[in-house]
Amino acid sequence: xxxxxxxxxxxxxxxxxxxxxxxxxxxEFLVGVYVPDPADRLLGAGPCAVAGCERxxxxxxxxxxxxxxxxxxxxxxxxxxxxxxxxxxxxRGLRRTQCYDLRPLPAGLRLEVAYALQCRLDERAxxxxxxxxxxx
Length: 136
Known about the structure:
- By secondary structure, this protein is mainly alpha-helical.
- It folds into 2 domains: 1-35 and 99-136, no CATH class; 45-93, no CATH class.
- The chain is 36% helix and 9% strand.
- The protein has helices at residues 15-24, 64-72, 78-84, 107-123, 130-135; strands at residues 5-8, 11-14, 33-34, 100-101.
- β1 and β2 (11-14) form a beta hairpin.
- The longest helix has 17 residues, at 107-123.
């Protein structure tokens, strides 16, 4: 076996690439589960638009529960809905939509995805949602 090639999953990954990725990643991305800053609108999700609601926004700046209630109310004007709706209790722990779980990925792919997240954050390029990464 060639010592310059590390076997990771079904396809060999050049060791030099794996080393370069590891060296290029900041410590915050060298984890199995990356949790973005909640205020970061690119990789994270800001707070729900309803005053006092501590859940993270998922759609239309509303958390999943408020979004569902807004849809069930036949999508009234957002400003009126937000003003007339109360907060919901914060949930304990992280949800799948709040973090990027890279643990199921093979080591080489995990480094590549982490590097892509870091680059998107640094360049303020189009974000990825955790569901998109989970599909990988």
